[in-house]
């Protein structure tokens, strides 16, 4: 609930955009896992601001410190606390927002909910919170890697520019070869051009991120309320700016008939049960079937823009807001590791739950 | 977890398609709520099989019995148990499926997960389980109605036929005027024709259901992992056959720039804060802003079809499955009350949580 | 929370003393467990009213029906719903209590909490609710038996009569040889005489129940907040009338010095690690060490007595309450299976959790 | 679960005895609460080592830092992270324990559970973890104080020396007037003498802590599994070295008849419902009745002693352990703020839950 996610493999995050630090506590990680801090840091480096010309210029190293739960390089079963100190907070940039409600932001709703609001950099509602998720999610990724499960995410579309081919013909190891994190280089170049133009215009763009999970065992996900797509939906829709999620053929499924959409089973040469197609995106009845998990996320354009907008202040009077401060013209390149993190957290949880499904034989 | 949904307002469902009964326990309902059994039954009547020519012909009255938690017509704070007995189960129709894995169904994944499977009518993986959700969700709806919050769902698209206008120009009180539960009667007629053709062909169709919540207070939803869209996503993606969800402009959001997508605030003549547009679909930073909640769900075509399909048996050998038994050529008309139920369960939970957000003044 | 107990192996109970039925939903039971309905019924028979001359004369068969979750005699991983219909409710006996608050009962506190109260037989606050726990707990016991873990409870003390020897010199298979469920027959006879005298006097008695768990593996229980004694304490203190719990030497521990209380380790002839003494009662740092779990519960005397008492009514005016209806002069004989049930529920949960503690080797 | 405690008001703790830091995340604290860091620190000062001649000499300032969730001195509804750095860890003192299992400690059970163990200072199983609880619990205490609820704990008994009078004739504001935290000064002096002798002997002592809560509203606690004594039992039995808990008359209840134990109601001059006695210790049916909550906790003697003991090593071979390092001859004086903290956490949770019990009027 609230700031904790997961049932058995859980993270609890804390921290505000302009506070002392952000961080998380990872609880339920099985003992004996090698905790590779370099991998954790590398995922946070992919999320951190200032990493390229098309992201916000806030300058944070986002160095991850491990405070607990690791002994001689391995998890002990104790909670793993991870800390990231804030350094380059320009709180003064936000003074003019103390009494204003920015369109598209959580200023108004947070104040209606809590009656108090840390306006500096958006406080707790800032996407800076996701740095803690990336750090915690990286530990889930390490657990999954040890089981042969690999998670990929990439930018599928920015505004009107979309990758014209399926994930299965892309080289997923090349996602980071472009700063926009699109493995189709021709499309990547067009995306970058769109983002640079938006930046020049003081405007912002949205798009789609695609997620792919390979090496999935069959049998993960709970059959009723905690179907695998339901849990992934919960986790991924909790990422700032996400407005939709679709699994497998998603919204296109509706345009197929049952006789076309059903993925027929066969047994391959190794005796493994497979399906001839994967319209379903890797789950049946909410439980993984061993095929790749595939989903697509829609991100709205960044709410912060460098243009003047009409709004109201905390006395509900009309005001004009000027665009000031630093902003991301398009969050998608930095969203990629966040999507991986939330996916990993869900799957690690499902893995642990699956260990309790049946009597030991 | 598993068969329980919600944190403070919770339901736990039980029962299989061909067992003795299905039902649910509603826990956390505040004391003092008038429990209108007629309303609960009317929602289950909208979900029950055999209600029209375009649904499955299984004949169940789906009569809801209240076993506990209600005294002199009101909730007491004790758990409310609701029971629906199964009557028209034709288990023999499923004998040929005992050793088969049906494409698009949970037979294979359930067996991989649990090593045992009640094959009769799909057992626990049958959408019959949702009758319990509708009954429990109706109590959540009663709670929300007492607060002025009204939930609507309707069929927006079947296969290629879509309602050509927005929900705001439709008469939402007329949803049940057509058996397909589409309030745009011209489109409804076309949808029915499509479904009847699919039935004749032994095939099935999917489509979209749109959800609308009116009368929302600002301040519901938790700002990090339990954002309102995340909780709705969890609940709604747990409905059988749902493959995607989108809020507000959803996947179209990506095609707007930030300057176009941001919903600007104003104060209306009553002093209420409103937005000029509602691209966001009623939430900001995961918290309701008082505008209508709007979402769209994609349903895949029903997995059960009356055509022969290639598959495998439990020895992983190839087989041909014949289409037999009863089926829904399109589940969307019956899905409408299920969507309302899951929406209500999420919102009732958020309402209760919102009572703990701040110090009493 | 509220009417659900457990994390992975969970029960949700429902029902009032004079409602249609009581029951529970068992969720998280691993698939493949043989569900022995005779055992479940036998545990409920040990709890049911009217079983002997020293218990209340309410006449209930407490027949347990399984509604779901079992297929061909085995658990399927789906929730197991258990139903017990109420039959011999004499609601008219309680008419005089509609506007009264009985001393020692939950009438007043329930009304302050909820503003509404089902006064018939105590409604939801009646210990009749524990019949559902016994049924659900019996399934946990079946799971534990399959692992070699055996749970015993017996009456250690009634009022001033206590078993003069330790559990290790008693024949725990003989607990049901006396109607008071005390395996030390000489003491049992004295206890029965005390209870019969209390019945004659219209008064009631309390006492102690001792719990013993044999065959415990080392490693169950979570080391911080969910220490095994903490979870057992939670479950056992939730039983009506329990006022205290102590583990191992319990309150006597304080009268030993550390050099006396520490249980020293040794390795036995089979290479198993054991302790020379068991002052700790089977746990160290909240985790089982493989020795027998031992605890003692204090029960207050039954609140219902057949004597007149001064009290107040719902207008807060003084009244005199007459003793009417049926009552248990001493609840301890019937509490034995309830204690076993709650112990089993905690241990089954800890067992499932222990499967997620470390990486598979 | 595991390292998180509470449902609505929750803490998640982390950290080991000899790690970088320990700390906790407080989630669910209502917005608008004044966060008095001086009070938090004062509670930690009461728990910290080295505070007097009768406690361990480890020298830690246990300075609490607030990392998040507080803005302009008030809670914002965001999680409050609290950090305490470790300074005076003498890990080398524990080198000889790397391969040994200390009697009375969690070394053996932790290794059986997780297969890996941070032996330095007991790692996560050290009572040093409770510093985080004290810090988080202090915030719960601030919330409760704002509601007029005051929590007291004091040392009732050390080994054979007990306070000879009830809490109601003691001056609870004088608890800290003695280093042993017993408000009965004559008894306090005897307790101190006992502890000093145990220290000289290299031995350790246990005893009883009594808890008292004043200013309780009626209606807190949930009526079935989450009865107030059950939740308090869970929280308090999770404190290191606690072996028993009793409410009100506790184990003495069994020696009263129902006609003696029932607390009769009356209405006082202010129209408030009260009971003439308080044998029950402030709850009826698991729900607070407005009388003082009273409980007693049994602590075993400290496991660490400065004497040689026989034990086994990690190869299960017999060894003799020498007493080395620093130790508390009696943990009770330092346990007082821990007891207050866990009590406050439970009550804050119950308070928030009670806000959802009934429809707003």
Describe it for me?
The structure is a homotetramer of 361-residue chains. Chain A is α+β, with helices and mostly antiparallel strands. Chain A has one domain (4-354): Chorismate synthase AroC (Chorismate synthase, AroC fold, 4-Layer Sandwich). In chain A, 25% of the residues lie in helices and 22% in strands. Chain A is built from seven helices and 19 strands. Chain A has helices at residues 37-47, 107-114, 130-146, 185-201, 228-237, 258-261, 332-354, and strands at residues 4-5, 10-14, 21-27, 64-66, 70-71, 74-75, 80-85, 100-101, 150-158, 161-162, 207-214, 242-247, 265-267, 273-275, 283-284, 287-288, 293-299, 309-313, 318-321. In chain A, the strands form six sheets. Chain A has a five-stranded antiparallel sheet with strand order 1-2-3-7-4, covered by helices on one side. The longest helix of chain A is centred in the C-terminal third of the chain and has 23 residues, at 332-354. Chains A and B meet through strand 1, helix 2, helix 5, strand 12 and helix 6 of A and strand 1, helix 2, helix 5, strand 12 and helix 6 of B. Strand 12 of chain A pairs antiparallel with strand 12 (242-247) of chain B, so a sheet runs across the interface.
Short description, anyone?
Chain A has 361 residues and is an alpha+beta fold.
Can you lay out the helices and strands and say which pair or pack?
The structure is a homotetramer of 361-residue chains.
Chain A lengths: L3 E2 L4 E5 L6 E7 L9 H11 L16 E3 L3 E2 L2 E2 L4 E6 L14 E2 L5 H8 L15 H17 L3 E9 L2 E2 L22 H17 L5 E8 L13 H10 L4 E6 L10 H4 L3 E3 L5 E3 L7 E2 L2 E2 L4 E7 L9 E5 L4 E4 L10 H23 L7
Antiparallel strand pairs in A: 1-2, 2-3, 3-7, 4-7, 5-6, 8-18, 9-10, 9-11, 11-17, 12-17, 13-14, 15-16, 18-19
